[in-house]
Amino acid sequence: MNASRPSFRTALAYWARLGWINFGGPAGQIALLHRDLVERRRWVDEPRFLHALNFCMLLPGPEAKQLAIYLGWLLHGTAGAIAAGLGFVLPSVVLLWALAWLYAAHGETPAIAAALGGIQPVVVAIVLEAVMRIGRRAFRHPLHAAFAAAAFAALAALSAPFPAIVAAAAVAGALCARFAVGFAPAAPAAEESPASESNPPRPPWRPLVVGAALWAAGFALVALARPAAPVLTDLYGLFTRAAFVTFGGAYAVLAYVAQVAVGRFGWLSPEAMLDGLALAETTPGPLIIVLEFVGFQAGWNHSGGWSPLAAATAGAAVTAWVTFLPSFVFILVGAPYVDRLRGRRWLTGALAGVTAAVVGVILHLGFVFGGQVLWAGARLDAVAVLLAAAALLALVRFEVKVPWLVAAGAAAGLARFALGG
Fold it and tell me: What's the whole-model pTM score?
């Protein structure tokens, strides 16, 4: 093996730094981990890295964060996994809390509202570009497009719940893998994981029990707070469910969260969801941190007997806790046993079906957001349409980085405000 294992202290310093520089979404974060740990530091060799990546792609949740947890586990076991996962996400948790407070306390200020108004068409373009990018990867068989169309129709016409769409797509994908040639990629044969050399399998009950105990402890705390802040228990339940159906990344789960948080509970508006996604795009860390913004706004707008800031901070903390806790459990339970899943065509078919359906889910999200942003009452907002089109062109043709596009959208919104548009 051409890899040199660092000391835990050295690795800890890297993980602590990583959380402040891991911009670029999952693709950029995975590339950053590869460049740093495989090419530069040579802490992990190529087979181990690819093995870890393949496993993380099977799981719900933020794949880049889970990849960091897996790599930390490879290097230093459970302690390394915890250090890597916390280092990856804590800076973004703190930064988004500050941005969410700024938005809640001062978002109605005319200049800030104008900047956010310019950012919203850019976010619509970002969502549409995600549809194109994921679609290129997902559509490798005619049936894949049918899965996406069915998911879109289920949401648009039936308002079907997102977990039901994921479950149906997984079952149908597993069946198609058996009967439709070419639906699922050929699964590699099972082989001994290189990870097992440094981390031999242990019974999975320990991380399961610890994870369940930590979840239960959090639930007990919000249950105690329910008389004064009932929104916290609703947040705990919603985002616990969301953590297990986040196939397809933040854009896909945002459709589910919007369906419940906006449609059922009325915690925030669709425009606020767009603003939260824009703020999350400007921070390092996993994009799914946008869910923390939803939790913050839910607490702020439905504070019960608490002050808005206290309820919002608790809502953000609850959301982050149940969003990221499962990632640690998934890795610590599954990593030593992942090889037993390899070579299962039904599994690759199920994942192919879910990935294809997610394209339709994200496309529906783009239509919902677009309807809120690109139409001013009964007429089309020409300026918003031009901003969205320019942002989409910049993303697809010139590969402009998202933070720069968000900044440009804010500048355009301020310019429009100054000109009285």
Answer: 0.84
pLDDT along the chain (421 residues), means of 10: 81 95 81 91 87 80 92 93 96 96 92 91 90 86 94 91 89 90 65 49 79 97 93 96 82 85 90 89 89 97 95 97 95 75 74 88 88 82 94 92 90 91 61
**How confident is the model over 148-183, as pLDDT tens digits?**
999 999 999 988 888 889 889 999 999 998 888 888
- The pLDDT tens digits for 341-383 are 555 778 888 888 988 998 998 899 888 888 888 887 678 899 9
What count of Cα atoms within 13 Å lies in the side-chain half-sphere of residue 43? Answer: 21
Closest CA relative to residue 320, chosen from 297, 289, 285: 289
Sequence-distant (6+) residues with CB within 8 A of 315 are 231, 232, 235, 295, 296, 297, 298, 299, 300
Q: Which residues of 230-262 are buried (b: 16+ CB within 10 A; e: fewer)?
A: ebbebbbebbbbbbebbbbbbbbbbbbbbbbbb
